[in-house]
Amino acid sequence: MGGRPDQPGRVTQVEGIALFWRQIAAYFRGYLVLKFQGLNPEKIINCAIQQGIKLWEVRRVSSEIIICKVAAEDFKHFRTLVKKTGCRTKILARLGLPFFYRQLQHRRGWLCGAAVFFSALYILASFVWVIQVEGVARIPVAQVMADLHELGLYPGTPRGKIEEKRNWLIRELKIRYPQTAFVSVELKGIVAHIELVEKELPPATQKETRHLYAVKDGLVQEIVVLEGTPQIKAGDMVSRGDLLILGKKVLRRLDGTIVTTEVKAAGVVKARVWYEVHIEEPLLYWAAEIGEGKRVVYYLRIKDWVFPFFSWGRVTGETRNLRQRFEIYKGRNQLGLVEFFKDTYHEVNWVQRQLTTEVALNRAREEGNKKLLYLLPVGVKPERLQEEWEPREGFLVYRLVAETLENIAVGSEGGETWNFD
Amino acid sequence: MEKGKDRKNWLGRLINFFELPPDVLLDLPRLVMSGNEKLVIENHRGLLEYTNETVRVRTAGGEIFITGEDLNLVSIEQEEVWVEGRISRVELPKWRG
Questions:
Q1: Which residues lie below 8 Å from residue A219, measured CB to CB, with a gap of 6+?
Q2: Of B50, B74, B77, the CB nearest to A42
Q3: Structural domains in chain A, sorted by start
Q4: What are the tens digits of pLDDT across the range A260-304?
Q5: Chain A partners within 8 Å of B75 (Cβ)
Q6: What is the residue-averaged pLDDT of chain A?
């Protein structure tokens, strides 16, 4: 059995595998099912194994009969053993590949039939017999099948032919069905899976009449009409709500008749628009100054309980508080379980101060620019900025005017004004 | 006989001293049993009796007597016997050594 493994648990495992391979080998080399009959059939078994013959699947059928399996090549040794032991031996079955092959030689018709069957199976498996169209919801399957037939894919087409022109087939299907987002052709055995995934198209836009109006006051500079009839011209001053492009189109036919059709007005009306910002920056203001009075209080906090335990100093009037924390123990969850507070209270004195014009102007500019950012539409930058200021009764009055060039046309339903599908 | 016994004792001590496998050097059989279903006997000297309930195997040390139900010899060859079935008892009567 090829050595003796040291681990007893491994022995049966190794021998089980060896037994399996021995049976496989026996099948390929041929084996016999033998019947030993006699008063002491164990004797012939002992004699056989002493000669190095291997026996397997030994079964006692009756007191005088033992059946076992033995390799066909070892059977020749049994002639002498039978004479020596007095047991009768009979071959019950001849099994394994050599005997099967010998049987086949006698059954040529059966062999030919099997060969024809497997050949037919192989040949028929090289054709596409079933076509499955998947994934279509709006496209009729019958139409797809008709198109596939036209493109050369139908039951009975050789698989190799489809494999060759798979990419071409996919491209043709994509051209024929532009509403698809994905097309695949897969061959699984004799089945051709065609998958067409349709695009999810956005809902159709309403085909109603639409006019374009001015969304803000401005001086018209440029008009681009894509659809509809313009009601203004460059140089006109328009106010918010004025009609800019009418959603109607007038066509004069060759016979002289005039036809008016309602359309969805589309276009761009660029106009100069002015934005104005007013800022009043005080030149006098009250500032908080920290005084001399000071009070310091120490606290100990343990979880939610706070204990004041030491303080010094005195303050009167308005105060400003500054808290400092000193963590002592974080605790298991790192939440700061125990810590010290130091609260410092300073007296505050309010004093009046005067700003210089330059400082006030800088502050006003900063605030004016911030406000202008909120006023301007997204993506529009001012083309020109103009600013004026003058000190008046303790304030610096600041005025910032920004001039922009932007599209002021908007549809009655809002949105982009040049999207005219 | 006495001389043979002395030799065996001396050999046994030597084997123990060098921690050698006694089954190989003393020509003893080796039995590997998996639960009560499989029993592999290595280094046997022949089959004495085999029925569906009993298997008797001769070894250098004496006889191994196996009783059970539906006992089959899965494989038998010069070095080993593989017994399968529902083994209920393994006895070593008349064991020498």
A1: A235, A236, A237, A238, A271, A272
A2: B50
A3: 8-101 (3.30.70.260), 127-198 (3.10.20.310), 278-283+356-406 (no CATH), 285-351 (no CATH)
A4: 888 888 899 999 999 999 999 988 888 888 888 899 999 998 888
A5: 19, 22, 54-57
A6: 86
